[in-house]
Structures are given as structure tokens and as C-alpha cells.
Amino acid sequence: MKKHVISGLAALSLLVLVACNEETDAPVFNSESQVFTISVANKDAVPTRAGRPLYSQAYKQNIDFVKFAIVRTDNNGGNQNQIVYADVINTWMTNSNVIATADGHGRQTTIELKGENKLVPGTYKAYAVGYSDGSSYTDLTTDLAGLAVGEQFNPISVVTDGDAEEIFAGGFENGEFEVVAGKGFSQSIVLKRQVAGTYGYFTNIPAKGPKGETAKYLRLIASNKMKEVIFDGFDQTNAVNGKNSFNSASEDYFDGTHQGYEVYRIDLNQWFPNGDTNNNDMFDAGDTGWQKDPAITEQNVSFETGSVFGGKFLVPFKAVNGTNTLQLQLLDASDNILKYWNVNLKEAQTVNVVDGADDNEVAESTSVYSILRNQLYTIGVRAAGDDGGENPDPEEGDDTPEDLSKGQELIIVVDGAWENIPGMELD
Prior knowledge:
By secondary structure, the protein is mostly beta strands. Helices cover 2% and strands 34% of the residues. It contains two helices and 30 strands. It has helices at 140-145, 268-271, and strands spanning 3-5, 9-10, 18-19, 34-40, 65-72, 82-89, 99-100, 107-113, 122-131, 157-159, 168-171, 177-179, 185-193, 196-203, 205-206, 217-222, 226-230, 239-240, 242-245, 251-252, 259-267, 282-283, 307-314, 326-331, 337-345, 352-353, 376-379, 402-403, 410-411, 424-426. A hairpin with a 6-residue loop joins strand 20 and strand 21 (259-267).
């Protein structure tokens, strides 16, 4: 019978004592115990934010299920690449067997294999996917069903017909582990975000174009957009794991020679329904009638007066030669571009590509760069999360919308709360 054992921190040793939170008695595993600690958290940065939609870089989780499988990787017994154990951890957020990680930023559980589930000597790897109920990835349920005991293992990939959705996956970070007769083990499995995220948080937005045109929208466009997310290559950092471009770019860059895909669009009229009431040619905190966009119905999500916000998750993609990866645009009601800002990295990045992902040849630069898994690309800083507002908790960091009145060269920072990534700038 499968048994989930609660722990607060699993020591990575053969003789394992599992420490727990203050309200839980600590179980003690013997020297032959086979223990897996499964956590949804980043080891090197602020841990996971799993909520949909994307409103900030605040770490949160809203995962319903975690599917866990163990795969035999050697050929002893003729069952190479066969799944030998599989389980689903239900109600991840409320399950009494899932508790906070030691730093309080993530959640974790431990599974001890016993009886017929105990692994025989050999070489194995672990694989896990964390996901939400009602996922828009329509093929996810079918793919997860294939992670069953006795089935041949194949890494999952999921397809979206539009926007990306946040989802987590991971495995044993060193690839394989060995089970030795008469000896136990404790393995840690960390699930990380398999998509990227981007948001823009702005204030002092130009209300008119160069010829007096009325501004209506801010939008971010990207040079590429992928359909499919590959859950594999978990040992690779700075990784692209998306494939199959939509191949339907239709949004013009300012130069008129390149086209891209709309990432998000902010309707300025929804935030400033009375318009530029102080007649200073900017949408800002001095305009009366400012409100949070009514489309954002979550009551606890609030923003600084005079600001606007937009954000989306992205399937990671390789850059497109000759095209700025991201461009922010100010539009009129007919989508004519009144003003634009190219979004640049301060330094070029090194990129790895997961096996099977799109790997077009491109020279990475500060303006032409790939969008990477588990990284958050931000313009402005909204650190307050779902308890934001005009006076966010200072312990959460400064809530600082980007000032768009500074002209064509705006220096910005890409938030490193998900992973450590280079700074970015608008020009």
C-alpha cells in the first residue's frame, strides 16, 4: 500500500531523520527506507508562483495535483524505460500530507516506498508534473494517464491554442539514481515552472501621439510565439523548451518591416475612464476617476493610483534573427503606433535548448534574445502580490510602476525573483 509520510525537511542521507513543522511529530526512517521528497519551489530564488493570471512576481502556489512516476533506466529484467511506480498527490494546497518547506516559500511532501512498491536494485529516474484542475492544456489529462505502472516512459509535452498557462515539472536533478540491495536512500525532486512570464506595470503614460492623436492602448509584442511546452531536460538552466511556432505573426513592429505576436494589451480607457482630466498630456495619478481595470475582478489585487498593468505567461522560444524580441507600443484606437520602446537586455545571455525544442540558429544579443523557461521578464516592479495596493508591505519590496514619460531611453530591470536573469532596458 502506498503511504505518504509528512516531513518538513528531508535530509539527503542513507540514515534519514525527517524534521517537521512545529505541529507535526517527526517520523524516523530506518537505514533501508526509500524516501522521495517532492517540493514545488525554486532552490536558488524566490519560490513558485502558480496562480493564474499573472499579477506580480510574488511567490505563491495554486497547484491542485502532482503526478509522480519512477522509471527504470537500466535493462536488468528487460524493463528498460518502464514506469515501475506512479502516484497522484491530490489537493496539493490543502492535503494534510503536504506542508510548507523549511523556508516557508513552497510546499512539499514525502513518499516512502514500502512492500511491493519498494524498488529493487537497479538504476532509475524520477519524473513529476504539478498542474491545476481544469487546465487549458487539453492533451494534459491523456498524457498524464500514460504515466502508469508498466507503461513505457516518454516525456510529456502539452499544446496550447492561445496563451500559455503556468505549469510545473521536474525530476531528480542529477538525472539517474541507483538503488543498492540492503541500502536505503532519500531523493529530492524539485518541480519548477516550465513556462516564462512577463508583465508591465506603468505610470505617466503619454496620452497623445506626436500629432495630437489620442492614445488608447499599450501593448507588448514578441518576435515569436510557440504552441508546445516540453517537460524534459530539467538539469538544463537558461533553457528553451518550446516548439512549433504559430507561424501567424501579424502585429507590426514600428519599423514596418517586421511582424510579431501580441503578448498583452492594456486598454487605457479602462484605467482612466475620464481620460486625461488634468490636461498634462499624460495618464497619471493626477487624473480624476482612475480605477483598477474592471476586468481584474480579484478583490485583493490592487495597484498604485495612476498606474496600469498587463501580464501573461509565455511558452519559451528561441529568438528570431534581425527582430527585437520584445517591443512595447503606444497605440491609438485604430492600432496605429504612436510611440514605441524596444525592450533590451543589459547583457547578452547564454541559452540551452531542451532536446526536441525549436533550435533555430540565432546570435543572442541584448536586443535579439530567447525567452527562457522559469524566468520572469518585467517592466516596472509590482512586488506586493495579491495583497498589493498603494502602500504595499515594505517587506515585499517596493511597488514601483515604470515611468513612461522619460522619452525613448528608459532603463528598466528584469526581475530576478523567479531565477537570476540579466537586467533589461527600454530604448
